Amino acid sequence: MVVRLRLQRFGRKHSPFYRMVAADARAPRDGKFLEIVGTYNPIATSAGIKEIRLKTDRLRYWISVGAQPSDRVAWILGKFGILPPPPQRFSLQTMIPKKDRKKEEK
Questions:
Q1: What predicted TM-score, i.e. pTM, was given to this entire model?
Q2: How many CA atoms are closer than 13 Å to the CA of 74, on its beta-carbon side?
Q3: Element (DSSP H or E) covering residue 6
Q4: Fewer CB near the terminus (10 Å): N or C of the chain?
Q5: How does the average pLDDT of the chain come out, rounded?
Q6: How far is Cα 62 from Cα 33, in angstroms, rounded to an integer?
Q7: 97-106 confidence digits (pLDDT tens)
Q8: Which residues contact 91 (CB under 8 A, 6 or more apart)?
Q9: Which of 53, 61, 70, 79 shows the shortest CA–CA distance to 6?
Q10: pLDDT digits (tens, 9 = 90+) for 71-103
């Protein structure tokens, strides 16, 4: 059985709230899960804080037995040091205008 760490959506329209769960990869997004390992509220409070609660011991257990995190969960776990941060999807070379790139190479 392939286990994935992913977000399960709750809340009303335009007001999302997520549970971070360990679930069978074949189960639907909001369907059956094995264990709740955290919560994530992407709506910032008046102080500008987005609330994330993680059960780090359980997350480390699921990763140790081969659970694969989704892209967003991997990003969150990278921010908290549970996983190494995911590699950047862009290179610094593409951020420099082409006319300036050739000057730096020479």
A1: 0.74
A2: 11
A3: strand 3-12
A4: C
A5: 85
A6: 13
A7: 777 776 555 5
A8: none
A9: 70
A10: 999 989 988 888 887 666 666 666 777 777 765
Distance CA 57, CA 54 (A): 9
Q: What residues have CB less than 8 Å from 8, skipping those under 6 apart?
A: 18, 19, 20, 21, 23, 29, 30, 33
Of residues 71, 66, 62, the one with CA closest to residue 36: 62
Query: Cα–Cα distances in Å, from 8 out to 23, 101, 102?
Result: 10, 44, 47
Q: Which residue has the tokens 């977000």?
A: 7
CB 4 within 8 A of CB 25: yes
Amino acid at 14: H
**Average pLDDT over every residue of 18-36:** 91
